[in-house]
Amino acid sequence: MSQTIPEADREHYMRLLEDAAEPEAVDFAQKLLARGVPAQEVLLQLVAASQAEVGRRWAENRWSVAQEHAATHLNEQVVAAVATTIRPAQPSRGRIAVACVDGEWHSLPARLFAEVLRLHGWEVRFLGASVPGPHLVSYLHSYDPLALAVSCSLPTRLAAAKRTIEAAQEAGVAVLAGGAGFGENGRWARRLGADRVATDAVQAAQELAAWLPATPRSSPHPLLVGDDEDVMVSKHKQSLVDSGMRLLGERFPALARYSGHQRQATLEDLGHIADFLSASLLVDDAEMFTSFIGWLCIILESRRVPISTVDVVLEAYQRELYDYPRALRHLSAGRRQL
């Protein structure tokens, strides 16, 4: 997509995010619309692009979690303001439901997608963050959309995404999957049986236009692994974290001097490692796990945490999961990544 919003405007908007200047940011977006910038470009080139930059600044330890949350809230308010200017085409192309999978609280990407769909003439029912499966199925039965668009921002929610995809299809509703959580080009969504995959909002709108309502739904291709190693890793997550903390304590005596905040952050990191291991086992893709380990190392280095601590944790997990061959292969790949 060509850039219709000048770099100077996008830099100005980032400064507004940094200052958490909500009224000014909303006013700035409205001025862009009044200037003739299409709403889709404001949503994607301004809001979506700035949110990606917010994530980078947090990862590089340039922004705190509080700054990231404030900026995200501000972007949500800007999307809401832009949404009030959208006048859907009449008659609509049909009804589409948009939802985040259960446990997925990053709703901004899905909301952006929903508004882009409205711009393309669809009647959209946006269900928001973390929609429990039974409630989603009940909604689909009541409102009978042509399709369900499922958003997943984190691979650790892929098990929930799989349940959502299966539940929707059992209710007779086709599924379009999108979001960073489904991997590059949505490859993990295909493994989980999604009917269609889109890598961005514009492609999703085009996919829906070509697909519905005349084109029959494609046959899902569920992943067949033949074991439940992902389930077992998830089930034993706490024991894995405990074993990792014990070995860290033995190898790094400084752990005993950690503050409560530092210790909690360490526990969370160990939990994330277990979660990504489980997710990578679900889709049988060690690259997901090694990519996460590489990303985690970048985060830890920016916070001056020794990377060797990650190897210690992976070693501890290997000891615990000695009887799970695929898990051992993924953990070994993670250690090679280090």
Automatic annotation (TrEMBL):
Keyword Metal-binding in record: yes
PROSITE patterns: B12_BINDING
GO function terms (MF aspect): cobalamin binding; metal ion binding; methionine synthase activity
Key words of the record: Cobalt, Metal-binding
GO cellular component: cytosol
Residue ranges constituting the B12-binding domain according to the UniProt record: 93-219
InterPro entries: Cbl-bd_cap (IPR003759), Cobalamin-bd (IPR006158), Cobalamin-bd_sf (IPR036724), Met_Synthase/Corrinoid (IPR050554), Meth_synthase_dom (IPR036594)
GO biological process: homocysteine metabolic process; tetrahydrofolate metabolic process
Xref: Pfam families: B12-binding, B12-binding_2
Protein name: Cobalamin-binding protein
Source organism of this protein record: Rhizocola hellebori
